[in-house]
Design brief:
The chain has helices spanning about 20-25, 55-70, 85-90, 90-95, 110-115, 130; strands at about 5, 10, 15-20, 25-30, 30, 45, 70-75, 100, 120-125. By secondary structure, the protein is an alpha/beta fold.
Length: about 140
């Protein structure tokens, strides 16, 4: 299927607009296709609330750039009570639901260490949530 640039973005057939040509090429019925687990690259942890949710199109383009670099992206949510389905239905469809984690009250850092997730880069609007557990 051809990819075409229009005024408002990139289109793959009748799907779009996508922010980049790469995003359009990596779609399957409107979903960005998750890359296989990379053997090299950084593990990037992207926060959902007040980060990804503020501009999903921008973050999807950035996630695609991470994948082009052979980096892996996960989402770890500390403040998820009642938001699990929202998170899984949004970023979970992009990075894969198996790459979305809920801390169950632990700090994000402690949760990741406990689950052998060696995060290289944290992207979070509120970095104290990386270190602090729920009170």
């Amino acid at each position: 299927m051809s990819v075409v640039k229009k005024n408002d973005g990139w289109y793959k057939g009748d799907q779009g607009p996508f922010p980049t040509k790469v995003a359009a090429l990596q779609t399957n019925e409107g979903q960005i296709v998750q890359k296989e687990k990379h053997k090299k690259g950084l593990l990037i942890c992207l926060d959902y609330h007040d980060t990804y949710e503020l501009d999903p199109k921008m973050w999807n383009a950035i996630i695609n750039l991470f994948w082009l670099r052979k980096d892996d992206v996960i989402c770890v949510s500390r403040d998820h009570k009642g938001h699990e389905d929202e998170i899984l239905d949004n970023i979970g469809k992009i990075i894969g639901k198996k790459n979305v984690y809920f801390t169950q009250g632990l700090s994000k850092e402690d949760f990741c260490k406990k689950n052998n997730l060696d995060v290289d880069v944290w992207i979070d609007d509120n970095p104290k949530h990386i270190l602090e557990a729920d009170k």
